[in-house]
Design brief:
Radius of gyration: 33 Å
Helix content: 40-55%
Distance between the termini: 81 Å
Number of strands: 5
Shape: elongated
Number of domains: 2
Order of helices and strands: HHHEEHHEHEHE
Length: 213
């Protein structure tokens, strides 16, 4: 037998090479399948978490509407995007930060259901003051501009809620002046809508020290 014949005899059969190739391809296919299944599972879990978040948000919105059912039905407050709006004319007279009796009675009605809602959801209440776009009249000895007026009105409502029994660590004040109007300041009626106080539940910031085991 020649050396050439011996060399040919030592070469692996073609079916063995094909088998190795198929084994490698099956391995790659299995890896791709495992990756696809893992990705699909992760996507499904992310979608489920998002659905749960939306359900919780919807439950909180419904709970807040139930707590505010009476004043909403009476038209004394509005609820838009989770924000409770109270017309400035209900709370204050024009260019004033002194709480009117009607406004104090309304805050007395709202305090208890708001406090329960905030406690159950571990949230804070942000009280925000807003004005229209008209500048403060010259000669006003109390406020230099709309920023100062909106700030004082927010503080007045915040203090009134605390006086009614709201824990001081559950509520805080913010001022926006003439910024963020709900409608265009085109006439007296639209400006009256922009003169308002809003109360919005916001997440409570967790103390990082309390999270240390």
């Amino acid at each position: 037998m020649s050396e050439l014949d011996n060399g040919l005899d030592q070469e692996p059969p073609i079916w063995a090479i094909f088998g190795d190739l198929m084994t490698g391809l099956v391995g790659v296919f299995v890896l791709l399948l495992v990756w696809a299944l893992g990705f699909q599972l992760e996507l499904s879990q992310s979608l489920e978490k998002e659905i749960q978040k939306r359900e919780v948000a919807e439950q909180r919105r419904q709970a807040l509407e139930e707590a505010l059912a009476d004043p909403l039905a009476a038209g004394r407050v509005t609820l838009r995007d989770g924000k409770i709006g109270i017309s400035g004319s209900v709370l204050f007279s024009l260019n004033s930060a002194e709480l009117q009796e009607e406004g104090r009675e309304l805050l007395h009605t709202l305090r208890a259901p708001l406090q329960v809602y905030l406690g159950e959801n571990e949230q804070l209440l942000m009280v925000s003051g807003f004005t229209d776009d008209l500048p403060i009249q010259k000669g006003n000895l109390h406020f230099r501009d709309n920023w100062e007026l909106s700030a004082q009105r927010a503080l007045t409502v915040t203090r009134a809620l605390i006086e009614e029994g709201m824990p001081a660590d559950m509520v805080f004040a913010a001022a926006f002046g003439a910024q963020q109007p709900v409608v265009e300041n085109s006439n007296s009626e639209s400006r009256s809508q922009n003169r308002r106080v809003e109360m919005a539940p916001v997440p409570r910031v967790q103390n990082s020290e309390s999270q240390v085991p």
